[in-house]
Amino acid sequence: MSTFPISAPSWAKLPRRHMPVLATLALLLVMYGIGVSQYRAFSNVQVVFNVFIDNGFLLVIAVGMTFVILTGGIDLSVGSVAAMTAMVSAWLLQSGLPALLVLVIALLIGPTLGFLMGCAIHFFDIQPFIVTLAGMFFARGMCTFISDASIPITDGFWTTMSQYRIGDPRGNFVSISVLVAFAVVLIAAYVLAYTRLGRNVYAIGGNPQSALLMGLPVGRTRIAVYTISGLCAAIGGILLSFYTLSGAPLIAIGMELDVIAAVVIGGTVLTGGSGYIFGTVLGVLVLGVIQTLITFDGSLNSWWTKIVIGGLLFAFILLQRLIGIRYK
Amino acid sequence: MSDAGNRFRTMLGHRLFWPVAVLVVMLAANTIYRPGFLAIEVNNGHLYGTPIDILRLSAPLILVALGMTLVISTGGIDLSVGSLCAISGAIACLYISRAPDQNNLVTVLTALAMALGVALVLGAWNGVLVSVIGIQPIIATLILMVAGRGLAQLIAEGQIITINSGPYRAIGLGHLLTLPLAIFIALAAALLVAAFTRRTALGMIVESVGGNREASRLAGIRSGRVVFLVYVVSAACAAIAGFMMTANVSSADGNNTGLWVELDAILAVVIGGTSLAGGRFYLGGTILGALIIQTLTTTVYAMNISPQTALLFKAVVVIAVCLIQAPAFRAKFRRRRPGAPPPPQPSPQRQKEQVPA
Questions:
Q1: Which one of A235, A287, B181, B322 is at 20 to 30 Å from A61 when CA atoms are compared?
Q2: Mean pLDDT score of chain A, rounded to an integer?
Q3: Residue B75: closest CA among chain A residues belongs to which residue?
Q4: Mean pLDDT along residues B184-191
Q5: This prediction's pTM
Q6: Strand partners, B49
Q7: B2 Cβ partners below 8 Å, 6+ apart?
Q8: CA-nearest residue of chain A to B149?
Q9: What span, in angstroms and rounded, lies between the C-alpha atoms of A64 and A231?
Q10: How far apart are CA B281 and CA B263, in angstroms?
Q11: How many CB atoms lie within 10 A of CB B337?
Q12: Exposed, middle or buried by CB within 10 Å (0-12, 13-18, 19+), for B144?
């Protein structure tokens, strides 16, 4: 300590960067505590597992969105792309294609669309907001173009994936979707923290001009994040089709807002450059626990979910502002 | 010869050329597909026909887009307008539905004033978040976009409020001088905004704040106040649009009134040539943009395609218009034709370090 008298002790410096994530964690624990103290059944482990089961697809999509927001961009197309992926796979399965081929095709659509949007954003210098808005319209239009009504999925592989339970002897279980979501989270966290691509993402979000002058591949990275977001949306769409066992043209409308809210509540700054995948996981869990609390209460109506999410968004943005994270 | 060529090129470079061209092409395609498209008939002293319908239905979008133009020209964005439409419509319909005499003009006016008042307060909330607390506009208004839908449902208690009020219905379906009243309301709002921004220094001030907020402040403009004001104006426009939407169907649905109108409005503004980076705005372009979007919607309905599939066409039009207007795309296109003199530069786009969305 005496050798570095000027610098503050390391534990005092840490919170500034980690504060939003820690605040989200605290909020999550408080909300869970309220739930446990109010409702007896809430302390059941299965409640926690159910939050993961019901929000697995949201988690995967939010991971993709975190990449995009870290570069300072935004992707409004994710909800529609997820719906389109579910729709396409339901449609292809109905027409009798083998499950594996359908899976590959469905997983290729999202990244392709994301790649094209990334190219439009980078090469033609159009706002991400507008480009991904067009992508959102396109994907949603494709859904109804395929079919006006929802298509049920009866394929063996899909139903197995949907109904298979991994659990302990006491009856608590998770679905395969949860494992997939965890795998995506771990891979994304590794990529962001330890690979060249991940560091480039943070650098571009911090300041694209400086990143360019440093010789970082700004264009390639920017296109890559939209492709990653598309891939995550596609995986999310597949998980969604596992969850609902159908492809519905109107499913996941407005999901992009939930996803953005989760990412922001998780402490990622919208101008880019600061945030963690772990925070996003917490953000998704916060949304999930709110829904569970409102379901448990029974007397509150569904619209309170929206009002509470709005209030939380406000509180967290204010917090980020107060602790002085750069907001433009 | 070269004079005509120059004139053509000047026209091509005009910012309204491409939007007008798109609109004309769409109208022409419609007329070819359905020869009766442009026919207007007089019935009961009122004009009827598809073009009139397009004008009437585009009125709410024009209103919302007008407010959005001002917000975007300061470099911001207002995502909450759809929710504001739902809230104002719900309040007005709730008050009228509880009144003993729904056809009483005073009742309707009180309802409108109340709803407008609430919308102004919510607009002020947006304004404070952006200008005083300094939150990024897209997020500041996202709060109200998410929570506002919940509020609208809370006001209506999750029900669809139906009313039977003549004066209120007139806002959406009434006629004046043979034309739908809604057109006049939208037109009046457009003229009012145009008068305030283009006949006084206000428009210039708004643009300068959009160009560089800090520099404007140092030049003696109260930047914060201007930013605050545009969000309030946007909320007021959204509220009136909300009245029209609910009056059209004589009911208020907290879930669906004004759903996605913010996206349509942003599209209308962008198609009209206003840059999302702020610093410039074109009211005429915005109105054209709104008309293009409504024409597209009507066209798709007329061709018996489901409304959701219409989004596919909207996506194509959006990308086409944005590409045509993108300086980078134009530059690439121009390079392919060596020898041709460079056409006059359409208002040079300034580069910004960061885009607001």
A1: B322
A2: 85
A3: A328
A4: 91
A5: 0.82
A6: B40
A7: none
A8: A306
A9: 8
A10: 18
A11: 7
A12: buried
- Domain residue limits, chain A: 19-322
| Residue bearing tokens 């999925």 | A153
- Which of B257, B309, B314, B321 has the most A C-beta neighbours within 10 Å, making it the best mutation to test the interface with A? B309
CA pair distance B120, B82, nearest whole angstrom: 14
Nearest chain B CA: its distance from A302 CA (Å): 8
Q: Is the pLDDT of residue A69 over 90?
A: yes
Report, as an integer, the average pLDDT of A96-116.
92
Place of tokens 């107060």: A322
Q: Is the pLDDT of residue B291 over 60?
A: yes
- Closest partner CB to A310 (pick from B144, B153, B309): B144
User: Residue B99, SS3?
Assistant: coil
Best residue in A259, A314, A318 to probe B by mutation, most B CBs within 10 Å? A314
Binary contact (A310, B312; C-beta < 8 A): no
pLDDT digits (tens, 9 = 90+) for B74-92: 988 898 999 999 999 999 9
Q: Which tokens is A242 given?
A: 């596992």
Radius of gyration over every alpha carbon of chain A, rounded to an integer in angstroms:
20
The closest alpha carbon to B257, from B85, B52, B3, belongs to B85
CA separation for the pair A158, A155 (Å, rounded): 5
Identify which of A115, A129, A84, A103 has the alpha carbon closest to the alpha carbon of residue A251: A84
Q: For domain A19-322, which CATH number applies: 1.20.58, 3.30.70, 1.10.10, 1.10.3470?
A: 1.10.3470
Is residue B144 within 8 A of residue B83, CB to CB? The reply is yes
Question: How many Å lie between the alpha carbon of B312 and the closest alpha carbon of chain A?
Answer: 4
Tokens of A206: 């911090």
Chain B contact set for A318 (CB, 8 A): 133, 135
CB B252 within 8 A of CB B161: yes
Q: How far apart are CA B265 and CA B261, in angstroms?
A: 6
Confidence check on the interface: ipTM exceeds 0.85, yes or no? no
Q: Which residue has the tokens 């319909």?
A: B93
- Rounded to an integer, the average pLDDT of B288-298 is 88
Decide: helix, strand or coil at residue B265.
Answer: helix
Cβ A172 vs Cβ A46: under 8 Å: yes
In contact, B267 and B261? CB cutoff 8 Å: no
Q: What is the full DSSP assignment across A118-164?
A: HHHHHHS---HHHHHHHHHHHHHHHHHHH-SS-EE---HHHHHHHH-
